[in-house]
Amino acid sequence: MPLGDGITFSYGSGIDTYNFDPRPLFTVNKEMIKTPSNIGLATKYNMTLNGYVLPTGGDQGSAGLSNVISGTNVLRDSFARDFKLLLLQCGSDAPLISGYPKVISIDVNNASDNYVQRADYTINLELPSLTGGTSDLAGEFCDGSISGDLSASGLISLTDDFTVEFLDQKVGGDINIAGFGSSPSVFSLQRTLSAQGDPTACVASSYEPWEIAKNYVSANLGLTPAMTGLVGLMCVSGMSIASNFRNISVNKTDGSVNATETFVAYTGSNPATEEMEVSSERSSDSPHISVTVNGTIQGLNTIDYGAGGCVPTGETTFNNALTAWNGVSGALYARANGAYTTLIPNNRPIGMQTALNIVPLSESIGYNPIVGTVTYSNNYDDRPDNINSYALMESINYTDTYANDVFASITVLGRTSGPLLQSIGTVGPTVAEISIDSIMFPVQGDVSGITADQYLAYSGLIENYENGLLARADVSRIFINNFNETWDPKGGHYTLNKSWTLGKCS
C-alpha cells in the first residue's frame, strides 16, 4: 500500500521517524510468561516484519542499485536502537499498534535482480504489549481472580522459596519438673527471593532490568510465619521472628537480583534462646544436698529493615539477652527447687529438708556483649534457714567442757615409773560455750554511727541458751567466763564468743 492512503506505519518519532514504504506484511505471536503456580509475570509479543526496499527513483541499472542499497542502509540505521515508538494507525482512529519494541534482528536479502530493483528484509521485534510499555494481564487463578498477576512489576522470572527446619531439635513444650515451665520452640527459616527484570518493560522510572528486579525484591522482602505455612504444617502457633540477616547478589548483565534472608522463629515472649543445665550433688561427708543451675542465654537480633530496606532498626543480640535474663533470673530458685523436690528420692532421712534454702551458696553471672550472651550459675543447698535474716551465711557452735578430776601429780627423783598421782577428792568446773560466725550484708557509707541492728537477732539466741543452762538439774548458778563480739561493718563479718562456768550451790 502506498503512502497517502491514510495509514501510518512507522518506527521512531520526530525527525528520526522511519515510515515504511511500501508497508511490510507482519505476523504477531503472543507468549504468556507465568510461574509454575500460574502467577502471571509478563506478556511477550514476537513481531516479524516482512517487506522490501524499492529504488526511490525507479531507475534501472547502477542508479537503481545505488538507491536500493541506500534504502537498506536507512532501514538498518532506523532500527539501530531499541524502544522507539512502533506505530500502526488508520487516520485518527485509535492506534492498532503503539508499542516500544526491542529489536532482535534485521535480515536483508537480495532479490533475483541483485539489488537493482529491490531488496527483501525481515525484521524481528519483541515488545511487552502492542499498545503500551508494560505487559498485558498475564495471570489468573482458576476461580477467575487475578490476584496472581504481576504483569505490572516488569519481571520475566520470579522464584520465592521458603525453607523451615527445627533449630537443633528445639521442639518446645511443657517440662515435667515443677518450676521449669515450658521450653520454647525454635526454628530456622530461610527465604530466597529471586527476580529477573524484563528488558522490554518500562516500569516507572526504571528501565534497566536489574533495577526493575531490585525494586520488586526490595519491596517484597520480609517474613511472617503465615507466609511459610509454618503454623499449619508444623502445628506451632504464637511464632515470632528475629535475627533477620540478608545476602543480596546482583547480576546486571542478566538483569537479575537474588536475596536470601535467614530468620530464627521462636515461641515465647523474649527474642532469645537458652541452654540450661541443673545438677545435684550429695556426699557422705555432708548432710546437705546441693543443686546447681547454670546456663547460657543467647540473644537474637530483631532487625527491622523497614520499607525499601533502609534504615534498619531494632535491638542488638545483647540487649535481647539482657531482657530475657530479667525473666530467667527470677526463676532460678524455682528450677533448682523443682529438681530437688522432683528428683531427690521421697524416702528422705528423718530431719532432712523438703526444700532448698532460698539464699544461694554462690551466684555468678557473665556478660558477652560482642556475641550477645549472658551466662549464669547459681548453687543452692538444703541447709536450714538462717536465724538472722540479715545473714548471708552463719555458723553456730555449742561446746560443753565437762568437769574433770582434780588430782596432785608429784614427781619423785629417781622413780622410773613416773610421777605419783594422788586424788584430792574433788572435780573441776563444767564450762559451756557458744560461738557464732556470720557473714552479713556490708554497711554502705559512713559507719561511725551505726547500731548493732544487724546482729541483735542473736541476742535472743544467747538469752535462750542461758535460760537453758539454768534449767539443767545439775546447775544452780552460772558465771560468765568471757564474752566478746567483733563486727566488721564494711566487710559484713560478725563473730561472737561467750562461755559460762556452771555450778551448784549444794
Give an overview of the whole structure:
It is built from seven helices and 27 strands. It has 506 residues and is an alpha+beta fold. It has helices at 61-78, 209-220, 225-228, 230-234, 317-328, 332-343, 457-470, and strands spanning 7-11, 18-19, 25-34, 40-53, 86-90, 97-99, 102-110, 119-127, 131-132, 155-166, 173-174, 182-183, 186-197, 240-251, 256-266, 272-282, 289-299, 302-304, 313-315, 362-368, 373-381, 391-401, 405-410, 420-427, 430-440, 477-488, 493-503. The chain folds into four domains: 7-132, Beta Barrel (Elongation Factor Tu (Ef-tu), domain 3); 154-268, no CATH class; 276-385, no CATH class; 393-402 and 429-503, no CATH class.
Going by helix content, strand content and strand pairing, the class is alpha+beta
Shape category: rod-shaped
CATH class of the largest domain: Mainly Beta
CATH topology type of the largest domain: Elongation Factor Tu (Ef-tu), domain 3
Instruction: Assign the CATH architecture of the largest domain.
Output: Beta Barrel
Radius of gyration: 48 Å
Overview in brief:
The protein is an alpha+beta fold and 506 residues long.
Topology readout:
Elements: E1 7-11, E2 18-19, E3 25-34, E4 40-53, H1 61-78, E5 86-90, E6 97-99, E7 102-110, E8 119-127, E9 131-132, E10 155-166, E11 173-174, E12 182-183, E13 186-197, H2 209-220, H3 225-228, H4 230-234, E14 240-251, E15 256-266, E16 272-282, E17 289-299, E18 302-304, E19 313-315, H5 317-328, H6 332-343, E20 362-368, E21 373-381, E22 391-401, E23 405-410, E24 420-427, E25 430-440, H7 457-470, E26 477-488, E27 493-503
Parallel strand pairs: 6-9
Antiparallel strand pairs: 1-2, 1-5, 3-4, 4-8, 5-6, 7-8, 10-13, 11-12, 13-15, 14-15, 16-17, 17-21, 18-19, 20-21, 22-25, 23-24, 25-27, 26-27
